[in-house]
Design a protein that fits this description.
The structure is a single chain. This protein is mainly beta and 196 residues long. It has a domain at 44-179: Oxidoreductase, molybdopterin-binding domain (Sulfite Oxidase, Chain A, domain 2), CATH 3.90.420.10. It is 9% helix and 31% strand. The protein has 3 helices and 11 strands, in the order H-E-E-E-H-E-E-H-E-E-E-E-E-E. Strands 1, 4, 5, 8, 9 and 10 form a 6-stranded mixed beta sheet that branches. It has a 5-stranded mixed beta sheet with strand order 3-2-11-6-7. Strand 6 (104-109) and strand 7 form a beta hairpin.
Length: 196
């Protein structure tokens, strides 16, 4: 078994649980949106053969998986061994069938926050669209009803309150990336800010 120190990327310190938006984590970019499962939907489009609009019942019927991973905030804290459950991002890829031109994916949350990653980065087994954390449905402050989880990146890539996925041929910088944060967000390289 690895020690906690070996699991931590550079300049990170462990804490016991994820900080919640709206209560114990400063909501810098937005307030928590009020979402009803009756009206919520995940819209998938852009450069795909099969655009999708998945309501909550349709998301719940997709093949689910569990993944245990560490969660690293760019502010310098980490939570080890988070157990997420949801659907692999690859499931959305298989349903939407991106065109050969699609190399990137832009995500948008119900609060208007955006981020983007490459299709290659999103292809790993541990990249999920998650709806539970440690055996419980996501709370509002953790991204209810659905959030992206990308363990190899700082948490600003793991968007909360996910509502839209857009496949693109050109990279679109997200909220923090367009404000000076690193687009790669690589945790092991301590890659927090864009290179000048």
């Amino acid at each position: 078994m690895s020690s906690k120190k070996e699991k931590l990327p550079p300049n990170q310190v462990p804490i016991k649980r994820l900080l919640k938006w709206g209560t114990d984590h400063p909501a810098i970019t937005s307030k928590i949106p009020k979402i009803s499962l009756d009206t919520w939907a995940l819209v998938v489009g852009g450069e795909v053969k099969k655009p999708l609009r998945l309501d909550w019942n349709e998301i719940a019927t997709l093949p689910k998986t569990k993944s245990i991973s560490n969660f690293h905030c760019v502010e310098g804290w980490s939570v080890l061994d988070c157990e997420w459950e949801g659907i692999r991002f690859r499931t959305i890829v298989n349903l939407a069938e991106p065109l050969n031109s699609a190399k990137y994916v832009t995500f948008e949350g119900a609060d208007g926050y955006t981020t983007s990653l490459t299709l290659e980065e999103l292809s790993k087994d541990n990249v999920l669209l998650a709806y539970t954390l440690n055996g419980k449905p996501l709370e509002e402050g953790y991204g209810f009803p659905l959030r992206l989880v990308v363990p190899d990146k700082y948490a600003y890539k793991s968007i909360l309150w996910l509502t839209q996925i857009k496949f693109t041929s050109k990279k679109e910088l997200g909220y923090w990336e367009s404000r000076g944060y690193s687009d790669t967000a690589h945790i092991w390289n301590d890659d927090r800010f864009a290179k000048q």
